[in-house]
């Protein structure tokens, strides 16, 4: 009986661990995702919430190798289907190696891009079949889904102006056309309309501190514990 009572106590203690939250940041390049992710994580950590910041593709040893291949401008011959599958491969590794264990341990995970980016970039930007993309998603991530997605929306002209200040073109996607960027932005906005309960659109042209405050408020109201 003593063994059973101790075992029951251990099980009850384990049940007290609240699952973590997965928050993803999306938007075209130049929207300010990195800055806003850091600001949100810092504020959550001051409240005692453990936060892990990740990026896609990457976040694992295998994922970082895939990232190098995907972004390397010397691989100009890469076809769209290869690009899609590489993104999903890196994501599958990240979900199983990092995201799922962290969430199970009660960690909050903030990720720079997740599967919405693939639908926006490869589905809308590249015009690949979206039904096929979503099927591959299910294989790559299983039941893992963001609790909240922050879409930093920025007009393409504003994004290009910001990117021009970075100097030389940094990776393979920096060579994409304005039309590609517009299709991608339109894709993001379409996704937001289809899932308004998860995807929150933020005007990324506003001052940085105003955006940060809005994101924090949305996060705490929607995911507060």
The CATH C-level name is Alpha Beta
What is the CATH superfamily label? P-loop containing nucleotide triphosphate hydrolases
C-alpha geometry = globular
Distance between the termini: 36 Å
Mean pLDDT metric: 91
Helix content: 55-70%
Q: Assign the structural class, choosing from mainly alpha, mainly beta, alpha/beta, alpha+beta, or little secondary structure.
A: alpha/beta
Search tags:
single chain, 225 residues, alpha/beta, Rossmann fold, five-stranded parallel beta sheet, 9 helices, 12% strand, disordered N terminus
Structure description:
The chain has 225 residues and is an alpha/beta fold. It has a single domain (20-223), classed as Rossmann fold (3-Layer(aba) Sandwich), CATH 3.40.50. Helices cover 57% and strands 12% of the residues. The chain has a five-stranded parallel sheet, sandwiched between helices. α3 (61-71) runs antiparallel to α4.
Write the SSE topology.
Blueprint: H1 2-15, E1 22-26, H2 33-46, E2 51-55, H3 61-71, H4 80-104, E3 108-112, H5 115-125, H6 130-141, E4 148-153, H7 156-164, H8 178-194, E5 199-203, H9 208-223
Parallel strand pairs: 1-3, 1-4, 2-3, 4-5
In short:
The protein is built from nine helices and five strands, in the order αβαβααβααβααβα. The chain has helices at residues 2-15, 33-46, 61-71, 80-104, 115-125, 130-141, 156-164, 178-194, 208-223, and strands spanning 22-26, 51-55, 108-112, 148-153, 199-203. Strands 2-3-1-4-5 form a five-stranded parallel sheet, with helices on both faces.
């Amino acid at each position: 009986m003593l063994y059973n009572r101790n075992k029951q106590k251990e099980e009850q203690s384990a049940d007290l661990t609240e699952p973590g939250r997965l928050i993803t940041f999306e938007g075209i390049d130049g929207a300010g995702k990195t800055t806003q992710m850091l600001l949100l994580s810092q504020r959550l950590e001051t409240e005692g919430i453990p936060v892990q910041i990740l990026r896609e593709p990457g976040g694992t040893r295998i994922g970082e190798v895939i990232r190098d291949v995907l972004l390397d401008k010397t691989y100009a011959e890469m076809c769209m289907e290869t690009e899609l599958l590489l993104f999903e491969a890196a994501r599958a590794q990240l979900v199983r190696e990092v995201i799922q264990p962290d969430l199970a341990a009660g960690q909050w995970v903030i990720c720079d891009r997740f599967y919405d980016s693939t639908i926006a970039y490869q589905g809308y930007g590249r015009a690949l079949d979206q039904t096929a993309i979503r099927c591959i998603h299910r294989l790559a991530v299983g039941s893992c889904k963001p609790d909240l997605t922050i879409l930093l929306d920025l007009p393409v002209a504003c994004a290009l102006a910001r990117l021009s200040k970075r100097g030389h073109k940094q990776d393979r996607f920096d060579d994409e056309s304005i039309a590609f960027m517009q299709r991608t932005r339109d894709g993001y906005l379409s996704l937001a309309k289809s899932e308004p309960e998860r995807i929150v659109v933020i005007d990324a042209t506003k001052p940085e501190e105003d955006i940060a405050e809005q994101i924090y408020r949305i996060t705490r109201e929607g995911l507060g514990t």
